[in-house]
Amino acid sequence: MVCVKSLLAAGAALANVSLTHAWIYAISAPETAAVGSIFTVTITNGLHIQNYQNFGIIWGFQRPPYQDRVTGEFELGWTNLVGPGATPMPPSGNFTVELTIPDGWPTGDVQLMAVTPIRVGALGSTDLVYLSQNMTLTAAT
User: Fold this and answer.
1) How many angstroms separate the CA atoms of 133 and 126, rounded?
2) Where does the secretion signal sit in this chain (predicted)?
3) Is residue 125 one of the residues assigned to a domain?
4) What are phi and psi for residue 103, nearest 5 degrees?
């Protein structure tokens, strides 16, 4: 038989468990950036009722007609969001990362792609979240 004291202790522990977790739902970057430069991307996350874990963000550029939903034609890198060396992510709100456009990349219209591997819900379903923003890459100055 379970004692009342154990039930109360378990209930108190469960009351302290957060029922909401951050999920990334938007990115914002400058309209233009020069090849060879560093630019800042603002990432917006909010609270989600399910268990929601973002593992990181894969960054890339793609050119029109924007058909590759994964990382596009040009991969920029990875932002780690878990474990040692992770980029700090607030439970809700904005945070920023800096991305570098390597020298020698072609100029013109591109779409910045952010692909986030996630785990959602009590069963731990996995998926990818795709976010994008149009940009123009200009010649280095």
Assistant:
1) 24
2) 1-22
3) yes
4) -60, 145
